[in-house]
Amino acid sequence: MKKIALISHGCAKNLVDSELMLGLLAQNGYEITLNEDETDTVIVNTCSFIADAERESIRSILELADKGKRIIVTGCLPQKHPEELKQEIPEIAAVLGTTDFTKIIGVLNQTEYVKEVNPKPEYIYPENIERQQITMGASSYIKIADGCNYRCGYCIIPYLRGNYHSRKIENIVEEAKKMVQRGVTEIILVAQDTTGYGLDIYKKPMLPGLLEELNKIENLGWIRVMYAYPTMMSDELLDTIARLDKVVKYVDIPLQHSHPEMLKMMSRPAFDYRPMIENIRKRIPDVSIRTAFIVGYPGETEEHFEHLCHFVQDMKFDRMGVFTYSREKGTPSYSMPNRVSAKTAKARYKKLMEIQQKISTERNKSFVGKIMPCIIECYSDNGEVIARTQYDAPEIDGVVTIKTHKQVVPGDIEMVKIIDSTEYDLIGDI
Fold first, then answer.
1. Average confidence (pLDDT) over 290-314
2. Which of 419, 401, 291 is CA-nearest to residue 365?
3. Full-prediction pTM beyond 0.90?
4. Which end of the chain is less enclosed by CB atoms within 10 A, N or C?
């Protein structure tokens, strides 16, 4: 049996593509390994969202080239640089774009260099492939759509993945049921914009309807929604999240900035976000709101940044990420004037994170003494149990470290007493 290795970089959406590729390989008789030393051929599924992610992917490829591996590069990097990759790294045996990964079997059988990159990508989810999951833990991602119809000034994604394409409700529900049968407790819905789900195929937003159907699945513990869009936060959606028992009370809504001038420059919805945030909190009791902001975008003045600082102080987001602007060729902002220096952007990042750290510290203190349902993730090296509350998404939010002598099983949801807290994490006891 032919053995093949795969290295996956980037976001959860990319991870799903990697798992689809592995499923296709398994269907065609390949043995899968995640250890590149066990095989001569390695697939590297790359990310190219920002410069740091691109560098990480390239570093991976160069390390494999040094080991003399046959390297097949897939995903965002070849979609963005279809010609330059082979010129810069001649050891690459083949490249596949973001929507061409289903051609992987044919590419593996070629002896000459192959370039399969559709210059106009349109991502249609391959429903006939059984995903081969790399990580089988408490939670798993389901991609409900791909591509994007928005053209935010900083974002390369629509140019790498094409316009928005939703999957059918019945296909998503079927995939979720299979995951639950394999022992997954929490499913996490991802797309470039989950709140736009269904508009293209059902002619109206269907995320509430999808959540209704998923909520009926027996033995499913939690349903989490990521990547909401500000103009799509309808009362119907909020009321659905509040009402359904399996849908965690967690809203992930990257806002990117608060100042209307900045939002216009970013080609984002330019309105006062405060009433929207208040409406989310009113309609979903005890909700946790996660957001993300970009600092150092071209044209951001000190006044714009101060507006953002006040907004963050006032809104007291439960979870928050901050990114310094990354100048990406091919995006509308690439050639914009009034660029902000890297030093200024870094200082703004630091200041905003310091504001959030204080908010997070206070919020975490409020949980001490409460008993909360937590999903068990794993055991740490020193024997402590690592878990998450419903208010924490895996890998990006906090964890609960539990001291217990009780035997617990990863994937189970246990009632945990919170006994202490740090800036971002909680300490619990069973």
1. 98
2. 419
3. yes
4. N
